[in-house]
Design brief:
It is a single chain. This protein has one domain. Helix content is 65%, strand content 0%. It is elongated, with a radius of gyration of 20 Å.
């Protein structure tokens, strides 16, 4: 999908150079994916300590051993 954006050239050029990317599209796609990933991780942090999985280390080891 084509979209027209007004972005600062200096910012795009710096990102292209820093990330070693050849196109502006690559930079924008990378930035959007990274932003979404960070937001998802931040959202998951809200559950830290609130979910009781009742799984111990031995159970995990046995389960992994049975899979492989």
């Amino acid at each position: 999908m084509k979209t027209t954006l007004n972005l600062p050239d200096e910012l795009i050029n710096e990102a292209m150079h820093t990330l070693n990317m050849k196109t502006k599209s690559e930079v924008v796609i990378y930035a959007l994916r990274d932003l979404l990933r960070r937001k998802k991780v931040a959202s998951l942090r809200n559950y830290k300590g609130k979910i009781d999985l009742e799984i111990d280390l031995d159970t995990l080891r046995n389960r992994n051993a049975n899979l492989g």
